[in-house]
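REVIEWER CHECKLIST
Item 1: Sequence provided? yes
Item 2: Single chain? yes
Item 3: Sequence as submitted:
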Amino acid sequence: MEICIDRSESHIHPARRPSADLVGFGRNRRSRPRTSLVRGLLRRRPTRNPSQVRPCELGARWHAYEKACTRFDVAAGWLQGCEPHVSRRCTVDWICRHLRRITTSNVIQATFGGFMKGAGFSKRSGSWYRITDEVITVVELQKSRYGLQYYVNLALWLRPLGEVKTPKEQACHLRTRLSRLAGSEEGRLSSLLDLDVPMPERERAENLLAFFTIHLGPVLEAVASLNSLRHEAGQKVVAASLVMGPARELLTA
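Item 4: Structure as written out by the authors:
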């Protein structure tokens, strides 16, 4: 599909022209690019040949948002792959709806970051680290590629097996998720970590903080040292984790 840019809006059917609320979307300085993006999309007309796509014609603003928000990959694919009979107004409405959700403050990230900072962790390259004499604990808030769901990943690097300053979560000796340690509360955690589940922000933040305090806090204490990992609470974490061979031998010694 080839995308052409038309500087006028005369070709747009009156029913598909942006309404007043769309045109006025984002009046402050920070959100002005969103308005320009929406107007720019309205001025682009798909042709009948879907095999010819020139990404350079999508415009600089589109590429800027594509780098900043992975959700725009979905929007771009839908816009470029839509059939001629699909209303572009419908496409723009979809993008506007997700733009609001992308650019608003994320209560999950804020609550998680506040809890980890209070637990004595420091953030580096998107992950939270706590370094003790024997164990480096790595906690990471991972976002799903297919929606607004989040997951809390927990990983341990055992320092007797090698010295690394800030190991990556996927390279650690023990890896698990908080959902595997939540027991019967796994469903509740999934709802709290899913922005697609409607919930007031204050309620979500309070429930998340309480959940982290009750479930994640004790887990972080249980994995602070090799000795604590060999006790009952630590063994529960080990049993729910993917463990590398050398680490299992060290913990059973």
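Item 5: Key structural point noted by reviewer: The radius of gyration is 24 Å.
Item 6: Recommendation: ____
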